[in-house]
Every structure is written in structure tokens, then in C-alpha cells.
Amino acid sequence: MKNILIIFTVIATVFAGSIFTGCDSPAQNAQDAKANVQDAKQDLKEAQRDADIAAQKAVNAEEWKTFRSETDAIITENENRIAELKSDMKKMGKKVDAAYSEKVAELEQKNRDMRTRIDTYEKSQNGWDAFKREFNHDMDALGVAFKDLTVNNKK
User: Fold this and answer.
1) Which helix (H) or strand (E) holds 70?
2) 39 lies in a domain?
3) 24 belongs to a structural domain
4) Residue 139 in contact with residue 71, Cβ under 8 Å?
5) Among candidates 115, 103, 94, 105, which has minimal Cα distance to 145?
6) For residue 107, what is the enclosing H or E element?
7) Residue 152 has pLDDT above 60, yes or no
8) Is there a contact between 78 and 142 (Cβ–Cβ < 8 Å)?
9) Sign (positive or negative) of CA dihedral 132, 134, 137, 141
10) Is residue 135 within 8 Å of 115, Cβ to Cβ?
């Protein structure tokens, strides 16, 4: 009988302990729910930020391909114009002005520099908007320089 009483006491104690520890207060449940909501909101914000970054990279990748092909075409066109200018200089012979020759060489170097810049950017791809703005500005200046070279200001 002593054994049954001890077993019954142990079972009653375990049962009572589990009832008291298993029940959370409504205030504790509310705090846990608030914490879960805050965690979910933070996870949602991070997921949205990651999705935005991924979408921006996809747009930039497509924009980069278009930009690269357009600038490659312009640089190749400039190389052809330089070749034509050099050919014209050879045809003119000794009548070629030294300043004209120097300007053609300068344009050729600037064009090579532009190709190097675009190749260098492709490897790092940092600061797309600033690079695009500066590169377009420099390409426009190079185009103006080509036009100015072919204008005959001598009368």
C-alpha cells in the first residue's frame, strides 16, 4: 500500500506540474504573437529588398548588354573614321599639317581609352549610373572632336 501511495503521489505531482507549466498566460501568448509578427515583417522586408535587388540586377544586365553593343558600334565606327583620316593624310602627302596629324593621333588615343574604359567597367561593374553618365558625356565629346576635325576653318 505504501508503494501505491508513493506512486500515486509522484503521478499527481508530475500531472499538476505539467498543468501549471504547460499553461501560458494570455499576456505571454500576446507577447509571443507580437514577436512572431515582427519577425515575419522583418523577413518580408528582407525578402522584398532581395527581390528588388535581383530585379535591378536583371534590368542592369539587360541595359548593360544594350549599352555595350551600342558603344562597341560607335567605337568601331570611330576606328573606321580614324582609318579613313589616316588614309586621306597619306593621299595628301607632305601637305598634311602637323597639327592635323597630331589631332588624328589624339582622337585615336581617346578612342582606344574609351574601349579600355568599357572593358574595365565590364570586369568590376560598380556605380552603373555614374559610369554611364560619364561615359556618354565623354563619347559625345569625342564625337564633337571628330566633327570639329573634319570642319575646314582655313580660308
Assistant:
1) helix 26-92
2) no
3) no
4) yes
5) 103
6) helix 98-124
7) no
8) yes
9) negative
10) no
CA 30 to chain centre: 43
Residue found under cell 588615343: 109
Inside any domain, residue 23 = no
Query: What residue numbers bound the domain in which 111 lies?
Result: 44-155
Q: In the chain, how many domains are there?
A: 1
Q: What does the DSSP assignment read for 81-105?
A: HHHHHHHHHHHHGGGS-HHHHHHHH
Cell numbers that stand for 143 in this block: 564625337
Average pLDDT score, the chain: 81
Could you count the other beta carbons within 10 Å of the beta carbon of residue 118? Answer: 17
- Is residue 123 a part of any domain in this protein? yes
**pTM for the structure as a whole:** 0.59
In this prediction, residue 155 carries a pLDDT of 40
pLDDT, tens only, 83-92: 998 888 787 7
Write out pLDDT tens, residues 65-83.
899 999 999 999 999 999 9
